[in-house]
Predict the structure.
Amino acid sequence: MKKTYIYKFLLASTLLSVASSCKKALEISPVDTIEQSKALLTSKDVEVALVGSYSALGSRNLYGGRPFLMADFLANTNAIEWYGTYEELTQTINKSLLKTNTFVNNVWAAGYTAINDANNVLAAIAKVDAAKKDKVEGEAKFIRGSVYFDLVRLFSKAYNDGSPTTNLGVPIVLTPTTAVNDQSYVSRATVAAVYAQAIADLTDAETKLPATNGFFATKSAAAGMLARLYLQMGNYAAAGAAANRVITSGNYSLTSSYIAAFPTMGSSAGSNTTEDVFSIQVTTLTGFNGYNEFYGSSTYGGRGDAVISQAWIDANYVGTDDRVNAFYDDGDMYTSKFANPYGNVSIIRLAEMYLIRAECNVRLAPAAPIGGRTPLQDLAVVRSRAGLTTTSATLANILNERKLELAFEGFALHDAKRTQTNIGSIPWNANNLVFPIPQVELDANKNLTQNPGY
């Protein structure tokens, strides 16, 4: 990427030299600023910019998959066998991230690119046609709120680790960055402040978004992300209520088999399933499935670097559990979830919502369960799809079901932190389970401070 910028700069310099030799009076506008009044003039301009925000969100370094894969690597003890040559991921699986890790750098950069794109849309929202204004604003806030949530739980202490009102989160930027100067060097907000911003964005998004919106963000997508966020905070009443709104929307249903919830292996295209509340669209022309890059075998478009332990599979998917069929043997064992380089990247699935509602009802034990369904009933919905019977719905049962149902989808690290479960011999709140603030960002922004341990 840096080489690309250098080449563009050299080309631009050459052209300017030629132009200036031909016409001395040529005036050149500065290239480090953007005059927004000239960039987003019409409703169509803003709508196109919103599509660009989705493109940024779907980067391999963001919701294309890599941050979720890296979170699972940090949480790994015996499920993933790493045979890759990428030093950045070797550091991740060894829990020895460096502040110069380029994968970590790229997650930070991709996150703030998506946030800035969303901010550009929101700053020009008055230009949008009245009939579309709420939808466009809701989509931009869904993107911004979701990214802030994921950045703060990767680059900061967990919400339940010490005091979120004093622990440092990530910088909050709510206006477009049109020029790089002293004003653009923002300090880190607290963890509590970042969560509050994400909640505000996602709550407003849920209010403004339509119930159906093609493959773009919907009212249920915002509610589903809120359910996940509130669960991470330990706000079980709010998490259960948000999950219930998704379930009772009537717009989603579990697929007939577990593997059908994921893109077909080896297919040349992918599409959303009835279970996808929100997913990143990947085609043969656009998008990138960052999961497939490392989890997929070479036969199915991947590098084949991340092998799934057969012993782990045998120990966890027992009896008639149909989910054992979500693995395939291509010399080594791989997860079938990502055996399609052009498969959409599922971000929120309906099964997760059932498990969130079940967990919240168990923890709260309300007189009337949220949604009018008992934890046993919700757990049975997920397990029966896997071909299993259900006789008990303890907290331990539900947390184990999350591990099996959501395996290799980026949940393991964050579940370990919120349940205060150590990762092998590593304490759940250890410094090396938090991403470092990239050194390149510290060098550029004097107002940033590094995380403990780095």
